[in-house]
Amino acid sequence: MPQITVVGLGICQPPLLSPQALNALSICDCVMGSPRQLESLADVQTCVSATHLHLPKLKQITNDIKGFERVVILASGDPLLFGIGKYLQGQFTGHTVTCISGVSSVQGACELTGLSLQDAQLISLHGRPLSNLNRYLQPNRNLLILTDQNSNPQAIAQALVAANLGQSNLHVCERLGYDDQNHRQFKASELATSVTTFADLHVTVVNTQGMGNVKPNFPGIPDAHFKTDGKSGKGLLTKREVRLNILSLVQAAPQEVIWDIGAGCGGVAIELALWNPLGSVYGIEHHDQRVACLNANKEAFGVSTNLHTIQGRAPDALAELDNPDKVFIGGSGGNLNAILQLVWQRLKPGGRLVASAVTESTKTSLREFSQHIAQDPADYLQVAVSRHDTIAGQDLLRPALPVTLMSWHKALKETH
Fold first, then answer.
1. Do 246 and 171 sit in the same domain of this protein?
2. How would you label 222-232 residue by residue, b for 16+ Cβ within 10 Å and e otherwise?
3. How far are the Cα atoms of 22, 262, 354 from residue 6, in angstroms, in the given order?
4. Do residue 190 and residue 72 come from a single domain?
5. Under a CB-based contact definition with an 8 Å cutoff, are residues 191 and 153 in contact?
6. Which residue(s) pair with 74 in the sheet?
7. Which end of the chain is least crowded, N or C, by CB within 10 Å?
8. Are 228 and 288 within one domain?
9. How confident is the model at residue 375, as a pLDDT?
10. How many structural domains compose the chain?
11. What percent of the chain has pLDDT over 90?
């Protein structure tokens, strides 16, 4: 396989290339890029002898570069900022992939609007659902948004209005680095119904303003903010006070795979995905109505990218999933013993298993399992919550059913 150098062209036209990038172009025997990117090299005389190829679909790159020793792949802006660089590094493990960054469109938008990059939340909606934006829609935030045809400025403005942030300011920065570069500013409430057109190449900068509504800023989302399946779903959402204890016991971390078995309408799974965007959460649920609510909540809270719904019954529904780092069992459909055995077998060393119980039979099963695995004793606690209510016009605290939580930590190295 050849040596691959990914050259970020930046946003200047013609591109402003570093000595390192110019050297890579001068010694390569193949340059790959889009027609627009290849055309931008017309004034760069260092690669006139190289073969120019249009960049194919990503999966075809390996075949197209066979027979070449030094390949340059062109990228827009910074190839390591939601770009092709990370993909190539993953595909060509064991081979040298060097990335040379140019000025990104995000940096250009900051320059144009006067926003400091460290004060902003960078979001890519390119090739991703617009609903992913929902997780960031709180007041007084600066959002730098990379978009595609489904996340145009009007669609972003409509999402802001729906989140009660209609007073937000949107800066649309078009054709950054070109002679006809443009910067226009709008109120979300006005742009949401506008027919204004924008260039395909643009970055949207948002300063969120307004009261906001259901989007949380901290763990412990109020129960009323979740969609449940009416009467049959009442009580199937893990309540906030119990949920906070579960989150504390699970201890989700970046890059981890987490299973929520018996996810119901998604209270625990949503919070695991929302507060750990670099983890992968799998919500396993078999009931049709609860799955519908789980998916609706997933979209409402903007966690479609890292929360995956698996409709089916455990343990059978777990067969094709990656082995987990953390597992929460909130429901078992009568298969608790089989689920516990399989989960403990599949759980990675150093992982955590947390299970909840309300009935005495479930508590007994958990205690028997704990004795069976013969490791350190489980962490064992009971959450008993009383909530405000009234009777005959008088205030009182009405107790909910206590919930027992047990958790186990799987040793890094099994002891015999």
1. no
2. eeebbbbbeee
3. 12, 45, 44
4. no
5. yes
6. 7
7. C
8. yes
9. 65
10. 3
11. 75
Q: Which residues contact 349 (CB under 8 A, 6 or more apart)?
A: 410, 411, 412, 413, 414
Task: Specify the pairing of strand 97-100 against strand 3-8.
Answer: parallel
Look at residue 277 in the predicted model and tell me its pLDDT.
Answer: 94
Q: Does residue 257 sit in the same domain as residue 311?
A: yes
pLDDT tens digits along 57-113: 877 888 888 889 999 999 988 999 998 999 899 888 767 899 999 999 999 999 999
- 361's tokens: 């039979």
Q: Is the pTM of this model over 0.70?
A: yes
Asked whether the predicted pLDDT for residue 414 surpasses 70, the reply is: no
Q: Quick one: 293 and 376 in the same domain?
A: yes
In a domain, 177, yes or no: yes
Cis peptide leading into 129, omega within 30 of 0? Answer: no
pLDDT for res 217: 84
Average model confidence (pLDDT) across the chain? 91
Residue 212 lies in a domain: no
Look at residues 377, 374, 318 and name the one whose alpha carbon lies nearest to residue 327. 318
Specify the CATH number for the domain of residue 157.
Answer: 3.30.950.10
115 in a structural domain: yes
